[in-house]
Design brief:
The complex is a heterodimer of chains A (270) and B (314).
Chain A lengths: L5 H23 L31 H37 L1 H16 L2 H12 L3 H27 L3 H8 L4 H38 L10 H8 L8 H28 L6
Chain B lengths: L1 H27 L5 H6 L5 H11 L5 H13 L13 H36 L4 H14 L3 H15 L12 H7 L1 H27 L2 H8 L4 H23 L1 H14 L5 H10 L3 H29 L1 H8 L1
Helix pairs in contact in B: 1-14, 5-6, 5-9, 5-12, 6-9, 7-9, 7-12, 9-11, 9-12, 10-11, 11-14, 12-13, 13-14, 14-15
Classes of the chains: A mainly alpha (270), B mainly alpha (314).
């Protein structure tokens, strides 16, 4: 750990801080993120309400802290399933080739022809708004990145002497793939996943903003920003603070991704 | 060169078919009866039957797809349930602001990224480089619906320079009104292009032909712009091309933030009115736009880079 590059240390530290905030933050707060209190609507930031209050008198600080939970969950649920599905498809397709490979790559060509956000919105439009349908939509579209990354890695690794040697030794395909191939092809996907979390949170909060993701009165950052748009001149704090949270989260994960790239892919250099 | 373009166009056919198939199947994803989903729970049986017939739901799915393709080719995109006018006209009107916004944000992206990239590469590891890199790290993390808010807050509400949204009637007005939306998108994309340019520019500046150009006695600017940038801009254009999907996706949000009457706004309002044929068509158009831009990027790179040109033809 001492040899870790600075950006990785910082990235990991910030990630831990975010997780702690998501898990314990809400416990330390006395307020509730959804209870209305019309006596205190549109209060500017003060000691009692560090980020001010919204039109319904809810503390923006409380809502942003609770939002950490929801938005990190969005990041997790958008990335982990597609990571597993995409990597598996990429490994099987890349290693065995043939019909499955051809089919999955043609599907991939079609999936990337649509702008990511447009594809997700279109699928959510027919399935209905809400987070679960958004996770499904993201999975339908985003497995492609992981499958393509893993596949291109595996085409190289497949030709390596150690894989050939394992083949000659008569090891089963499962053993070769799990023990020899997987560890060597997974790094690129991992690096990509850390930046993909940002894209996931962007997507989740964009859909929340457009009214297609998390539904009111949920405390989700994109939703809070959307709430504040009607009060841009009266109460800019409503939208300003959750946005800062998103920017901070994005910077944390991009430090993490850069750091991981430096450690796992030293040959890329800087 | 012509044969390469032809081959590249032929390769687009399966993708184009795939896009139409995906968009066709999209509406079949509607849980339950699509006709009921469109008309709502109070629809009469007669009306349901009419919509089923209009959607061709009584035929087999293969026949339905072929009919859908035939209609597309004939330019019959169907009728919008909500607006009650042909979708072709609706989409055609809305495509203009979106394409203008796309072009505008691409230009702004280059205007921001190219000087910053050159600055960072020539002042590598000095203060200017660090500033550019920090600003770009933050820039990538700016969600468009929030950047839009901050820009509105600063430049529309506080300083009252730009309008809060809208499109305008003359081209001048449009260029003025679309400045903030385009800036919002490019603040997000420019950092990526800048990073690519910084690294390719650094590499180019270390190459032998730069020493040669300097030895010939060319001025610093001439070396930088006519020799180094000419090589270094290619990977940056590639990165811009790769992120075009992201850029197009951002227009959906930005149009809704700034009330630009484009395809993205049409898409969201059609979702709210359950106007599925319109959603279907807008999705298709977005797919077509992206595929065409990929094609244009490829051809542009080929035009600019003799090495690619040779590799493709030879």
């Amino acid at each position: 750990m001492r040899n870790w590059p600075r950006n990785l240390k910082l990235g990991v530290g910030l990630l831990i801080a975010w997780i702690l905030l998501a898990v314990f933050g809400p416990m330390l707060l006395t307020g509730d993120p959804t209870t209305m209190d019309l006596m205190h609507s549109l209060h500017p930031p003060s000691l009692a309400f560090p980020f001010g209050t919204d039109n319904l008198g809810r503390g923006v600080f409380t809502r942003v802290v609770y939002g950490t939970r929801l938005d990190l969950q969005i990041g997790l649920f958008c990335v982990v399933p597609v990571f597993i599905i995409g990597t598996t498809i990429g490994i099987i397709g890349g290693y065995f080739g043939g019909f499955f490979d051809g089919l999955s790559m043609r599907l991939a060509d079609v999936a990337v022809a649509f702008p990511f956000l447009v594809a997700v919105i279109a699928i959510v439009a027919v399935l209905g708004p809400g987070l679960t349908n958004m996770y499904i939509a993201v999975a339908v579209v985003n497995w492609v990145s992981y499958a393509r990354i893993t596949r291109s890695e595996i085409l190289v690794v497949k030709q390596m002497d150690y894989v050939q040697a394992a083949n000659i030794l008569g090891f089963g395909n499962t053993r070769i793939l799990a023990r020899h191939v997987l560890p060597n092809v997974i790094t690129q996907s991992l690096i990509y996943a850390s930046s993909d979390v940002i894209l996931a949170v962007f997507t989740g909060s964009s859909l929340g903003f457009l009214g297609l993701g998390a539904q009111p009165p949920a405390a989700e950052w994109g939703l809070i920003i959307a709430d504040g748009y009607s009060f841009v001149s009266q109460a800019p704090w409503i939208s300003a603070f959750p946005g800062l949270a998103i920017v901070a989260l994005a910077v944390s994960f991009s430090l993490l991704g850069d750091g991981l790239a430096d450690v796992l892919r030293p040959e890329l250099g800087r | 060169m012509l044969s390469y373009i032809l081959r590249r166009l032929l390769l687009m056919i399966p993708v184009a078919l795939g896009i139409t198939l995906a968009v066709f199947l999209l509406v079949r994803l509607i849980p339950g009866d699509p006709a009921r989903a469109i008309l709502g729970i109070h629809a009469t049986p007669d009306l349901l039957a009419a919509v089923r017939a209009r959607l061709g739901l009584n035929d087999s799915i293969v026949v339905q797809y072929l009919i859908y393709l035939r209609n597309l080719v004939q330019g019959d995109f169907g009728q919008s349930y909500y607006y009650g006018e042909p979708i072709a006209r609706l989409v055609g009107e809305r495509a203009v602001p979106t394409l203008l916004l796309l072009a505008y944000s691409t230009v702004l992206t280059l205007v921001l990224a190219v000087p910053a990239g050159i600055l960072a590469a020539t002042r590598r590891d000095r203060a200017a480089d660090h500033v550019v890199r920090i600003v770009s790290t933050v820039g990538v993390g700016l969600p468009p619906y929030w950047t839009g808010f901050i820009l509105i807050l600063l430049l529309s509400v506080t300083f009252k320079i730009f309008p809060i949204g809208g499109y305008g009637n003359t081209w001048g007005q449009r260029m003025f009104n679309l400045f903030l939306p385009a800036l919002t998108i490019s603040l997000n994309v420019a950092p990526l292009v800048m990073r690519a340019l910084r690294s390719s520019m650094t590499e180019a500046l270390g190459a032998g032909f730069i020493d040669t150009a300097r030895a010939k006695g060319l001025s610093g600017w001439a070396v930088l712009l006519r020799h180094a940038l000419r090589v270094a801009i290619l990977p940056a254009i590639g990165v811009l091309g790769l992120n075009i999907g992201f850029l197009v996706g951002s227009t959906v949000i930005v149009e809704n933030v700034f009330s630009v009457p484009g395809l993205g706004q049409l898409m969201i309002s059609s979702i709210n009115t359950r106007d599925y044929p319109t959603i279907q068509m807008v999705t298709l158009i977005f797919g077509v736009i992206v595929v065409l831009i990929y094609l244009a990027t490829d051809l542009l790179q080929m035009l600019l880079d003799p090495r690619v040109r040779k590799a493709q033809i030879g």
